[in-house]
Design goal:
Radius of gyration: 29 Å
Number of domains: 2
Oligomer: single chain
CATH architecture of the largest domain: 3-Layer(bba) Sandwich
CATH class of the largest domain: Alpha Beta
Shape: globular
Helix content: 25-40%
């Protein structure tokens, strides 16, 4: 019987198979060589940039990772922990998107206790039930600082209430009352970036102070505060001067009080200026301003403005709700990242704690972030957590940890919200004035960061070949100004945009 295949045919088929295997092996080998050559070229280029532009005496950590190809491109001190400053907001906002979801909303409710008589007398209290919402301000209302509480007051008036025999009460119980983090710089607590955190917050927990020169030389400067409120007291010791060289003034709030001092000299030909000064006790601030607005609309308040305590027992029912306002997590994350608004990041952090762990505190929120990092496979020795904004210098991460987060978030279902919340080079946010020229404009989407001694930048680069690269460039131990650190970061970003 004749065989189906001759020895000659079998040999030919085996030879063809071996040839194909050799071709594939050769192609893979070429790809590996090309990849190694490519990485080596990139390493040589970035090492040269570091050699020339690394600020003297600083410590620099870099991780560069191709999201498009899922491979590391460059590392330098990438497993060393660095102070990350506002790059901490990347972790806070990413955790919020993953654990709370894009549809999460804050809801603040205004309701009353007791009964309303036919002639409009409320025999009870009006309560503001806080949700940790950071958006009760003029930010989304054409800079009308009191737009939201004024709307509440109008709703109360429409309900026919003319007299309130009780109090105006701020229920801030969703959060604890550690308004200020213990690691924040004690000499900067008046500054807007050190704004306290509250279960009820208003106007970023600041007052807006406008200063302009007096038309009479030697006279006190003219001061306007928004909102107009008795909650703060301003002591004005700042004088108008005709000497430009003497133009120097300061605004300072005495710790644990709402006593604000303005001192120094203000040049007579200078334009008006505006500063945001923090307040003490956010929920009481909201209750006080709301009471004043109600009174301004001829609603008599017989009681006082105060915060809720353990003796107060109230329940919200549908028929005793006077007004509500909602805002989205999405807009909160955008303000946090685009503007590097620490107040928003800390409100989001405590919201995480309150919603996921029923613990509206710094530690409660940080425990949620820690859980997220564990799920990402990041070991605890790669990071140190202390607050949600990065104002604390105790927050530390390795560059690799940051690019691991960035790589994960780029493929997450809420990637669009996360990436769009980041400042865009030459376009908006804290990168508006960096990398403004083509072809770099709009190709870097990254979070900036600064605390004394540290300048950080982490985010994404879209190359001219449309490759997506995640990067983290952390500069620590800076002595003096940080412009050289920024220059280093920008030079590397420019290189990555044109890299191919």
């Amino acid at each position: 019987m004749k065989p189906l295949l001759s020895t000659k045919h079998i040999t030919f088929k085996i030879s063809r198979f071996l040839l194909l295997a050799l071709v594939f092996s050769y192609i893979i080998c070429l790809e590996n060589v090309w990849s190694t050559s490519e990485n080596e070229k990139l390493k040589v280029e970035i090492d040269a940039i570091l050699q020339k532009h690394k600020p003297k005496g600083t410590s620099v950590g870099i991780s560069i990772f191709s999201v498009s190809r899922n491979k590391s491109l460059y590392e330098s001190n990438s497993n060393k922990p660095f102070v990350v400053a506002s790059n901490m907001k990347l972790f806070t906002t990413a955790t919020a998107l993953v654990y709370l979801g894009e549809d999460f909303e804050y809801e603040t409710e205004i309701y009353y206790s007791g009964d309303i008589s036919e002639d409009g007398e409320l025999d009870g209290d009006i309560i503001i039930k806080g949700s940790g919402d950071p958006n009760i301000s003029g930010r989304f209302f054409d800079d009308n600082v009191t737009a939201v509480p004024a709307h509440w007051a109008d709703m109360i008036k429409e309900r026919g209430i003319q007299v309130v025999n009780g109090d105006i009460i701020a229920d801030d119980s969703i959060f604890d009352r550690e308004f200020v983090h213990s690691s924040w710089p004690k000499d900067q607590l008046s500054k807007w970036y050190c704004a306290p955190v509250g279960g009820i917050s208003f106007n970023d927990n600041c007052v807006d102070i406008m200063v302009r020169p007096n038309s009479n030389p030697g006279g006190s400067v003219l001061v306007e505060i928004k909102p107009e409120t008795s909650y703060v007291k301003v002591i004005n010791r700042c004088r108008t001067t005709t000497s430009k060289s003497k133009h120097s003034y300061s605004i300072y709030r005495k710790p644990f009080t709402n006593l604000i001092s303005i001192k120094g000299n203000y040049w007579s030909k200078s334009q008006s200026s505006k500063e945001w000064i923090t307040i003490n006790n956010p929920p009481l601030y909201m209750a006080t301003v709301f009471k004043e607005i109600l009174e301004g609309k001829n609603i008599r308040i017989m009681g006082k403005a105060r915060v809720i305590d353990e003796t107060d027992i109230y329940s919200i029912q549908e028929n005793n709700i006077l007004a509500t306002i909602t805002s989205s997590l999405r807009q909160s994350i955008t303000v946090s990242n685009k503007n590097s608004q620490g107040f928003y990041a800390e409100q989001i952090l405590k919201t995480l704690g309150a919603t996921i762990n029923s613990e509206g505190s710094f530690s409660g929120g940080l425990n949620v972030i820690k859980d997220f990092l564990t799920k990402l496979g990041i070991p605890e020795d790669q990071y140190q957590l202390d607050d949600g904004s990065g104002l604390s210098k105790k927050n530390k991460f390795t560059p690799d940890t940051i690019t691991t987060l960035l790589n994960y978030m780029y493929s997450h279902e809420n990637a669009g919200i996360f990436v769009e919340s980041l400042p865009i080079s030459g376009t908006d946010g804290t990168l508006k004035n960096r990398l403004k020229k083509e072809p770099y404009k709009s190709r870097v989407m990254a979070k900036t960061g600064y605390v004394y001694g540290a300048r950080t930048l982490s985010g994404y680069v879209k190359t001219l070949d449309e490759e997506i690269i995640a990067f983290s460039i952390l500069v620590n131990e800076i002595k003096g100004g940080t412009w050289k650190a920024k220059r280093l970061q920008d030079i590397i970003c420019r290189f990555l945009v044109t890299y191919n």
